[in-house]
Structures are given as C-alpha cells and as structure tokens.
Write a structure and sequence with these properties.
The complex is a heterodimer of chains A (60) and B (208). Chain A is of the alpha+beta class and 60 residues long. Chain A has three helices and two strands; from the N terminus they run αββαα. In chain B, helix 4 packs antiparallel against helix 6 and helix 4 packs antiparallel against helix 9. Classes of the chains: A alpha+beta (60), B mainly alpha (208).
C-alpha cells in the first residue's frame, strides 16, 4: 500500500493546473494530452494491422 | 378467436414486423464483412463496454451514497472507477465519431443511425456535466457556480438550475442515463438492421 502512495506522489495533484494559450485557444495541459492521445489512437487504429485480417481474407 | 382477428392484433403485427426487420441471425450475426477487420471498428464496442461499467459503478454509488464515496477507501475506488470509465467512454466515443465521420457513415440509408449517435453524444455530455455538479464537494460547487452564468445566458436557467443539487442529481442518475442507454440501444439495433457501413469504393480507371 505504501508503494502505491509513493507512486501517486510522482504526479503532483495539489498544484494549480497548467494551461496552454495560443491566440483564442486556451486549454489545460491535461486536456491537451488527452486530445493528442486520441489523435494518436485514431492514426494507430488506421495504420496498425488487425490480428487475423489476412486469414479472413484468405477464407473468402 | 379467428385467424383474421389474431392477424389483426397489434402484438402479432409488431412481432412480424420486428422479425422481418431484424431476424435473429441479423441481430446476433456469426460473421462480419472482411472490411470490419480493422482497429477503427473496435471503438464502438469499446464505448459500449465503458458505458456498461459507467452504469454498473453508478448503481453501486447510488446504493451507498455520497458519505460512502467520500469517506471510505472502497467508496473512493468505485468513485474513481466511475470517473475513469467515463473518461474511456468519451475517449472511445470520440475516436468512433472521427472514424465514422471520415467513412461518411450516414451513407446507404444510415441517417437515423448517424443521428441517434449524435443525440446520444449530446445526452452523454449532459450526463457528464450533471455528474460533475453532483459530486457534493468543492469541485462541484466551483463548476456549478461557473456554469450558472452560461446556462442562464441561454435562458435555460429558468427550468435547469445548476445550483439545485437535487435537480442536477435527478438529471444525472435518472433522465440522462435513461436517454443515453435507450438511444444507445436504438443506435445498436439500427447498426444491426442496416449493417456496418462499408468503406468507400476504390475509383477504377483513374489517371494520375
């Protein structure tokens, strides 16, 4: 349990949030990271081969 | 009762219509078209799995109540599960939305499928928002006092008061989840009726 508490301390959650300002755009770093992760997931979903895809094609 | 009378019953007509539109092999198919073998097609079902977890953890939170989710370690755990399943729900739903948008998934008479997805998304945003203002902590107080001016500016504040905890909690645990789950069910049934949208056909004979 103590190990888990020390692990949680790696990410300080008691500080003020960090924000990115770019013109009219104002987004928290946390939300920005989530948006970047979504874009990365989307691109990976398009590019990565799906398991068993060739086998299914062969059966047709 | 004569055969004609039985045929005219609304239950008979409804059953025949439902069975015609959605026979069992179409409702729970054995196979899917080859083009579904892509990671981009898994985000719809990921969204469904996350929604199931949201509902399950929501039930547990409803049974035990705010004192429990604020003060006990298991309550914290279930509360966190509720939050993180919502995070995964929206994450997967957005990637699903992008995928379907670029596939133009409304093609082939799938307008109702697309629109039920759009309305489900809006209902889910409302459910998430009312969840944030129903936490019964300083965070929910901050969010509700920040949101009230925006909501009041639209005129909706007269019937939708974000500072009214009882009203927000009812929207969060009854109305919006009911809407989201029912719409999701209709959305999935429409996908089963119309089938998964195929990719765009390759243009043949195109010159470079």
């Amino acid at each position: 349990m103590a190990f888990l508490w020390s692990l949680a301390a790696f990410i300080p959650l008691d500080n003020y949030g960090h924000y990115i300002h770019w013109g009219v755009i104002n987004i928290s770093v946390a939300n920005f990271i989530v948006v970047v992760l979504m874009i990365m997931t989307f691109v990976a979903a398009l590019l990565l081969p799906f398991p068993g895809r060739n086998r299914r094609k062969g059966n047709q | 009762m004569s055969t004609t009378e039985i045929e005219r019953q609304w239950t008979t007509r409804l059953r025949k219509r439902a069975a015609g539109k959605l026979p069992p092999e179409k409702l729970l198919p054995d196979t899917q078209p080859a083009y579904v073998s892509s990671w981009i097609y898994v985000f719809g079902v990921t969204t469904l799995a996350a929604l199931s977890l949201v509902i399950l953890t929501g039930f547990i939170l409803s049974i035990r109540g705010p004192q429990w989710w604020h003060s006990s370690s298991i309550g914290h755990f279930v509360n966190s599960m509720h939050l993180w399943s919502v995070e995964i729900f929206f994450f997967a739903m957005i990637v699903h939305l992008w995928g379907k948008f670029f596939m133009a998934a409304w093609r082939g008479g799938r307008t109702a499928t697309w629109m039920t997805g759009v309305v489900t998304f809006l209902a889910s945003v409302g459910a998430a928002f009312t969840g944030y203002v129903s936490q019964t902590n300083f965070d929910s107080q901050w969010i509700s006092t920040q949101a009230k001016d925006g909501i009041n500016a639209t005129g909706a504040g007269s019937i939708f008061n974000v500072l009214n905890l009882g009203q927000m909690l009812m929207w969060h645990i009854v109305l919006l989840p009911l809407a989201a789950v029912l719409l999701t069910a209709v959305h999935v049934l429409l996908v089963r009726i119309k089938g998964v949208v195929p990719p765009f056909e390759e243009k043949t004979g195109a010159t470079k």
